[in-house]
Design goal:
The complex is a heterodimer of chains A (about 210) and B (about 260).
Chain A lengths: L1 H12 L8 H27 L17 H28 L2 H6 L4 H12 L13 H25 L5 H7 L2 H28 L1 H9 L2
Chain B lengths: L5 E3 L2 E2 H11 L2 H11 L3 H8 L5 H22 L38 E6 L7 E2 H5 L4 E8 L5 E10 H7 L8 E6 L6 E5 H4 L5 E6 L2 E2 L9 E3 L12 E7 L19
Parallel strand pairs in B: 3-12
Antiparallel strand pairs in B: 1-2, 3-4, 5-6, 6-9, 7-8, 7-12, 9-10, 9-11
The chains are: A mainly alpha (about 210), B alpha+beta (about 260).
Chain lengths: ~210, ~260
């Protein structure tokens, strides 16, 4: 019985801090799934008419052929857009973006990049993002918005003509869409690598604490 | 604690619904929950077994139909595709088909007649000479291929809506269905609102020259508000119809509306 009492005391004395609220976790993993579907089907579509002198390996594409890739792309886009929109609205409305991602100062970023490269960047308090994280997370939100806008513009270049205008013309929107994809893939590599290096951050994105 | 609204005083709405769901038989419950999530079909994506390819295919086909409806909804019949100066024309304009140019239909313009069928007052067939006498307009627009590439070209011909009016077509019908001379019987349905779009054209000339074989001689339907595969070449007949008759690429899985 005494051990039970001790446990109770410990729990109430040091309540595990909620790092990632439920809505962040749910939307994060929906976004992860949607992004992967969009990237793999997007590679299939790219292969039908490559912008550059290379194609993506067939085994890393979704849909089997162009028609299949398009079906996946235009289905997963709803998941990506609805979830992404909900994320933006909630992030702004709850003040999470402001609290977690701002401010981003050049000196802060420089300091933390240097610390990260010399393995001196601490991760003791996961509720506070360092400047490298702030820059990457804010940056990838901007890229996410751009890839959706350029994609919508390419999907509806007549009905959503102003979106195409935003990027110049249809072919430019295609390049913007491609480079945003490249940026997301680069982010994904770093993001997954760092999550594996700091496993408690991965755990926080799954169970919240 | 968020403020809760009470439908019945003292009873929490959400808890009430939860309890009600529990008492439902399994099938009803599932339908109730699916119905409650109006985008249920989409969120199903997450739960769908991708390994079971037939169920994934069914779902993707359903989403594609949903996308047809969304595109029809946002289609503005007055929104014009951007037009360009002659200097912007892509040279050479690419030949594109699922076969080589050598295998492209070689239509004899003297024998060719455009057949008109379906919900129209006048079902007479049209010779090329008769069609050439109709008023024509030129427009320089961007052709966008389903593959992603695009090219700017100059097309001259008769607005399809003028021709539909001339033959007394029932423009309340859902589709104009085109059939082509391709040996595999290329065909494609065009929704009526797109068929009546001011820029949709029965094209007889490319770059002010009689339409060459590569671009669909003797007649192509140029629809700047649609992807390239919905711009049929070597057209031999058109049918005004309320039935969805499918299309060469549409049947293989390209989104049927495929509007720009």
């Amino acid at each position: 019985m005494s051990s039970l009492t001790v446990t109770d005391e410990q729990v109430s004395a040091t309540p595990a801090k909620m790092i990632q609220p439920a809505w962040v976790r749910v939307m994060h993993w929906i976004n992860a799934l949607a992004m992967i579907l969009m990237i793999l089907s997007g590679w299939q579509i790219y292969n039908a008419s490559p912008l550059f002198g290379f194609s993506f390996p067939r085994e890393y594409t979704l849909g089997g052929w162009l028609g299949g890739g398009l079906l996946w792309h235009f289905a997963a886009m709803w998941l990506l857009m609805i979830n992404g929109l909900a994320y933006l609205v909630t992030g702004i409305a709850t003040g999470r973006f402001r609290k977690k991602l701002l401010p981003i100062t050049p000196s802060g970023v420089l300091h933390d990049v240097r610390a990260a490269l010399t393995f001196k960047l601490g991760h003791d308090d996961l509720t506070v993002y360092n400047y490298v994280q702030r820059l990457l997370y804010a940056g990838i939100i901007v890229v996410g918005v751009l890839i959706v806008l350029s994609g919508l513009g390419m999907w509806k270049p007549v009905q959503l003509y102003y979106l195409v205008m935003l990027f110049g013309d249809y072919p430019t929107a295609r390049y913007v869409h491609f480079f945003c994809m490249a940026a997301i893939c680069a982010f994904l590599v770093i993001h997954v690598l760092l999550a594996l290096l700091v496993p408690k951050s991965l755990r926080a994105m799954i169970i919240g604490r | 604690m968020a403020k809760r609204s009470f439908l019945i005083p003292g009873v929490d709405k959400r808890l009430l619904i939860k309890d009600a769901i529990k008492t439902m038989p399994d099938f009803t419950r599932r339908r109730f929950i699916a119905g409650g999530a109006s985008l249920g079909a989409l969120t199903l994506l997450t739960g769908c077994d991708v390994v079971d390819s037939s169920s994934a295919d069914t779902l993707l086909a359903q989403v594609s139909k949903f996308n047809d409806a969304v595109q029809a909804f946002i289609f503005n019949p007055d929104a014009l595709a951007p037009t360009f100066p002659e200097s912007a024309i892509t040279k050479p304009f690419p030949f594109n088909a699922y076969y080589d140019l050598d295998d492209a239909p070689d239509v004899d313009g003297k024998d060719w007649k455009l057949e008109v069928r379906g919900l129209v007052d006048n079902k007479k067939s049209w010779t090329l000479d008769e069609l050439y006498k109709l008023p024509q307009v030129t427009q320089i627009t961007r052709h966008i291929c389903v593959e992603g590439w695009s090219a700017i070209g100059s097309w001259t011909g008769t607005p399809l809506r003028d021709f539909l009016k001339l033959i007394g077509a029932d423009t309340r019908a859902k589709y104009v269905w085109f059939q082509c001379a391709d040996k595999d019987g290329y065909n494609s349905p065009l929704d009526m609102r797109s068929a009546l779009h001011p820029q949709t054209q029965m094209t007889f000339k490319y770059a002010n020259e009689i339409l060459p074989r590569a671009y669909g001689f003797p007649m192509k339907i140029r629809v700047p508000t649609k992807l390239g595969f919905k711009n049929p070449k070597y057209v031999v007949s058109m049918e005004v119809t309320n039935d969805y008759k499918g299309g060469y690429w549409e049947d293989q899985g390209y989104n049927s509306f495929s509007g720009s």
